UniProtKB/TrEMBL annotation:
<dbReference type="GO" id="GO:0005739">
    <property type="term" value="C:mitochondrion"/>
</dbReference>
<dbReference type="GO" id="GO:0006233">
    <property type="term" value="P:dTDP biosynthetic process"/>
</dbReference>
<dbReference type="GO" id="GO:0005829">
    <property type="term" value="C:cytosol"/>
</dbReference>
<keyword id="KW-0547">Nucleotide-binding</keyword>
<dbReference type="GO" id="GO:0005524">
    <property type="term" value="F:ATP binding"/>
</dbReference>
<comment type="pathway">
    <text>Pyrimidine metabolism; dTTP biosynthesis.</text>
</comment>
<keyword id="KW-0808">Transferase</keyword>
<comment type="similarity">
    <text>Belongs to the thymidylate kinase family.</text>
</comment>
<dbReference type="GO" id="GO:0006235">
    <property type="term" value="P:dTTP biosynthetic process"/>
</dbReference>
<keyword id="KW-0418">Kinase</keyword>
<dbReference type="InterPro" id="IPR027417">
    <property type="entry name" value="P-loop_NTPase"/>
</dbReference>
<dbReference type="InterPro" id="IPR039430">
    <property type="entry name" value="Thymidylate_kin-like_dom"/>
</dbReference>
<keyword id="KW-0067">ATP-binding</keyword>
<feature type="domain" description="Thymidylate kinase-like">
    <location>
        <begin position="12"/>
        <end position="190"/>
    </location>
</feature>
<protein>
    <recommendedName>
        <fullName>Thymidylate kinase</fullName>
        <ecNumber>2.7.4.9</ecNumber>
    </recommendedName>
</protein>
<dbReference type="GO" id="GO:0005634">
    <property type="term" value="C:nucleus"/>
</dbReference>
<dbReference type="GO" id="GO:0006227">
    <property type="term" value="P:dUDP biosynthetic process"/>
</dbReference>
Amino acid sequence: MSQIKRGAFIVLEGCDRCGKSTQSRKLVEYLESCSIPVKYMAFPERTSDIGQVINAYIKNKQELNDETIHLLFTANRWEHKNHILNLLNSGTTLVVDRYAYSGLAYSVAKGMSKQWCMSPESGLPRPDVVFYLKTNVATLQNRGQFGEERYETEDFQTKVARCFEDIYEMEKSYWQLIDASQSQDTIHDSLRQKVLEVLKEVENTEVNVLDW
Ligand code: T5A
Ligand code: NA
């Protein structure tokens, strides 16, 4: 009996404006051009009921306390858990723009307890690889539209960057560091290569679980 090879669960992470969306789009186009089944997803997923509340909060149109918005971001991932697993197990590779790591980094950057923030993320599907697009905050500030959304200030992004460093140390085994100050094409070339390796590696494995 022939078995469907599962897709890879690929996540891009980093501070605001580090180039996640640009690189996700390029990666999806590339995989499509190789006839590899692939789907782009982004968190927050802003179309669900929960996603719409998150969107209003990010755009400074709604106030919520820190615990509430943290749990809504997490719930937004949980409400897509089965969809993610079904796609992966039916052979579709997912390129996902932010995930639980953003949930942790942005909340801890506000001064919340790391342990408290990690707990509700535990049990979600764990990515096969996280590409951490890292560069200094000054570089990010000079990119388009920086400063329009809630978290886009130099001071806050500096704290977020520190949290991502901490998460990188913790999750190193499946994180790959990418210098996000390079040109878009250079970053894309390096992601392409790494993704083809990951696709091969995960073929006959089960999807991992985030064990926070
Ligand atoms: N959040 C998110 C939480 O607090 N908790 C959570 O659990 C989650 C999931 C919205 C906010 O929500 C927070 C984090 C965020 O503050 P979002 O929807 O991902 O998250 O945010 P967006 O505003 O859509 O995206 P970003 O601001 O993060 O931007 P990207 O996707 O990283 O960057 P991108 O690709 O749009 O590029 C930005 C600009 O830079 C240029 C691009 O052309 C563009 O103008 N650029 C480059 N310039 C030079 N060199 C390069 N290599 C470049 N790459 C891109
Ligand atoms: Na984005």
